[in-house]
Amino acid sequence: xxxxxxxxxxxxESGRRVSDRRAGTxxxxxxxxxxxxxxxRDARDRAELVRVFQPLARRQVMRYASxxxxxxxxxxxxxxxxxxxxxxxxxxHGTAFSSYAVPTIVGELRRYFRDTxxxxxxxxxxxxxxxxxxxxxxxxxxxxxxxxSIPEIADRVGVxxxxxxxxxxxxxxxxxxxxxxxxxxxxxxxxxAERHGSLDGGYELVDERDAVSxxxxxxxxxxxxxxxxxxxxxxxxxxxxxxxxxxxxxxxRVLRRxxxxxSTVAAHQxxxxxxxxxxxx
Length: 281
Hints:
By secondary structure, this protein is mostly helical.
């Protein structure tokens, strides 16, 4: 007679779970598991509870999922809420686990939208109403097979129609459009950034022009004239002398005196020591 093949005995915890699953209905097994975890805080029971109630968490995600938010991200948030519900649930209170877990999971999802989903800060009440209106709109669209009206959305959410309109306006602040996005689907379409005006470099010169204008009032008429011809029209000292009918040496003295006066006035305005002006050619 041939010897029987040896069969390894299952681990204790595995045998315990098998016996739990075979005894009673699924709700009864879940209740036993919840009570045991509440008493023992066994990490293995916690992991099993997460596996059992994951569908409950995913159902809450369906209420808030949209094309603008990755469903995987929302599922992770819902699972975090599920873990908090498992850790905080007390079977001795007589409340069903789902009645305790759903508000906890939904609270995590709403907190996620409030804290991370908005590009522009909105009051908490407006954010929650916007999420509720968005969810009701998607649900009614599926039920009615058409876009729902404002009164229909208001009736589903339980708020006045004006509040629905405010929520729809606020929904535009949920996400931002890239400035590099094309303005149409046509090939070669301009981007949003190209529709905006470019930066005017003249703005950077406003303060400098004001400072120069204030300092220029300390110059004589001839000094202002020579400086304008030299730096505004970019004439050489020889060309300035020919235009004014004076010698190049006189132009040089007037230019040096005017620049020195400008430097002194500018330094007095800024509280700094005046710089020695460079000799202009």
